[in-house]
Design brief:
By secondary structure, the protein is mainly α. It is built from 5 helices and 4 strands; from the N terminus they run H-E-E-H-H-H-H-E-E. The structure holds zinc ion.
Length: 138
């Protein structure tokens, strides 16, 4: 098992006396943090999909996308790499728009006076208890 310890510890984790063989500094931490946050969104989305047994995009996906892309934008600006700067400079727009639309949709829900469950916009009856929902006059 010495060869395995050697492989995992000396070749992968603590390579050349550095964690993962990387020269760590402030900007490297920002870049890796952005990478991890950006990558985590796919696992969050996959988890939500497995849980609901249908493809869903949870709000956390958009928050992680936004946070990860802003961290990556900061890193790419620091590195002055036009390819990465362009990739992350405009990415925040759809993420932010999705968060705004999600918030508006959530606010348009009506709470059922019978059971208290939040009902989808434009529903006439509560899908949980069947109570008639108060008509919204605008
Ligand atoms: Zn109800």
């Amino acid at each position: 098992m010495d060869w395995l310890t050697n492989l995992v510890w000396h070749d992968l984790i603590w390579h050349n006396g550095k964690l993962l063989g990387i020269d760590w500094g402030f900007w490297k931490v920002i870049g890796w943090l952005g990478n991890l946050v950006f990558c985590a969104r796919f696992y969050i989305q996959w988890y939500a999909t497995e849980k609901k047994k249908r493809v869903v995009v949870p709000t956390a996906f958009w928050w992680l996308s936004l946070a990860g892309s802003l961290l990556m934008l900061a890193y790419s600006l620091h590195k002055r790499d036009s390819v990465f700067i362009f990739a992350y400079a405009v990415a925040w727009i759809p993420y932010t728009r999705n968060l705004i639309i999600h918030r508006r949709h959530k606010e348009a829900h009506t709470d059922c006076s019978g059971c208290g469950k939040s009902c989808p916009p434009q529903s006439n009856f509560c899908p949980n208890c069947g109570a008639r929902l108060a008509a919204i006059t605008s």
